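ok here's Protease PrsW, seq below lol
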Amino acid sequence: MIAMIGAAIAPGIAILSYFYLRDSLEPEPISMVIRSFVFGMLLVIPIMVLQYIMQNEWNWQGGLVADVVQSAVVEEFFKWMVIFFTAYKHVEFDEPYDGIVYAVAVSLGFATLENLFYLIINGLNIAFWRALLPVSSHALFAVWMGYYLGRAKFSNSRKKERTFLWLSIALPIGLHALYNAIFLSVQNWIVVIVPFMLLLWWQGLKKVQRAHEYSSKKLSSRPQ
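and the structure came out like this:
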């Protein structure tokens, strides 16, 4: 059981540590990051209950549209809501890169507890693939979410803020939906998912670099 718990939490902690340590300008309080991670974990049960109701009470079973709504829309929307109300409005969210830190923390909290449940049900033999695909994909969807939340928070007009807020929820849902569609619609999915994940990492790291540059400009413009 200890090995299973370790295998479930290690990928999330490792990926979160990477994105947290990239915040070299003005790192967030570790207590805030842990809090966001815990909030993400707390989302798992209500989301699972809602998905169960959608599948069994509302009879939304099977099909690409049902899967997209139950997984991509529900999960990314609730993660976005938690980030918006617990981090976006917080005083510690004081530079653009912070959006990525908090979004990744919430998403990996969710992915880590979800991963533990999957390993308990299916065993340790799937731990490597769970770390490589679902856990890391949750983090990468969160990079896009956090990047645009950071742009929204420090935009210079209400119109730009609304646009970036819209992008911060729409793009992660779209990426998550595409990720799910690959598994549902492509017979030899491994041929497609590998380049898709590589593209996600490449674009995600570019977003990290851009957010870091925006943060550097933001901090340098502060009164001394």
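fwiw The CA atoms of residues 86 and 176 lie 23 Å apart. kinda neat tbh
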